[in-house]
Amino acid sequence: MEQTYIEDKTFERIDFTKKSVANTEYDNCIFISCDFSNTDLSGNTFSDCEFSMCNLSMVKTIKTSFRNVQFNDCKLLGIHFENCSSFLFSASFTNSMINLSSFYKLNLRKTRFKNCSLREADFTESDLTGSLFENCDLALSTFENTILEKADLRTSYNYSINPERNKIKKAKFSLAGIIGLLDKYDIEIE
Q1: Disulfide engineering: 180 pairs with which of 33, 83, 159, 185, CB 3.0-4.6 Å?
Q2: pLDDT score, position 173
Q3: Which residues contact 66 (CB under 8 A, 6 or more apart)?
C-alpha cells in the first residue's frame, strides 16, 4: 500500500472512525475536535502535530510515530503508548485525560504533563528523567523500576512511589506529597 503524505493541514470536527487513516504521514497538521476513538493508527507518523479537544481513546498504536506532538484538552483513555515507535518519540500533554494508558518502557525524558488525569497509568520501567508533572492526578498509577531522576512532581497528587524500587535522585516533591513516598511503610503521618 502506498504511503500518503499530508502537510500543513487543519482537520476540524472529522470523524476518523469512519475514515481510513492507514499508512499516512502527517507533518505539521492540526486536529481540532476530531474523533479517533477505537481507530487503528498503527504505522502512521505524526510529526510536529497538534491535537486539540480530540478523542483518541482506545486507539491502536502499533509502530505509530509521535514526534514532537502536542495533546491539548484531549481524551486519551486506554492507549498503549508502549506499542508506538520509540524512535524520536516526543509528546506533551496539557489538560488531558490519559487514564488507564500505558507508557511501559518508553523514553519520556523531559516530557511535560500539565493539568492531566493520569489515573491508573502505567509508567513501569519508563525513563521520566527531567519530566514535569504539573498539577496531575496520579491515583493508582504504577511506578516500578521507573527513572524519575530530576522529575518535578511538586504540584501533583495521589501518587504512590516506592523510593526503593524507583530511581528518584534529585526528583522534586512537595512536603504534602511526601506521603506518596512513604505509602509502602503503612505508617500514619499527621
Answers
A1: 159
A2: 95
A3: 46, 81, 84, 89, 90, 91
Distance CA 27, CA 8 (A): 6
Is the pLDDT score of 1 beyond 80? no
Does this model's pTM top 0.90? Answer: yes
The dihedral of CA 168, 169, 171, 173: what is its sign?
Answer: positive
pLDDT tier at 18, thresholds 50, 70, 90: confident
Which residues, other chains included, contact 145 with Cβ-Cβ below 8 Å and sequence gap of 6+?
A: 124, 125, 165, 166
- Which single residue is written with the C-alpha cell 505509530? 64
pLDDT tens-digit map of 110-127 = 999 999 999 999 999 999
For the ranges 39-43, 121-125, 181-185, the lowest mean pLDDT is seen at 181-185
Query: In one letter, which amino acid is 118?
Result: L
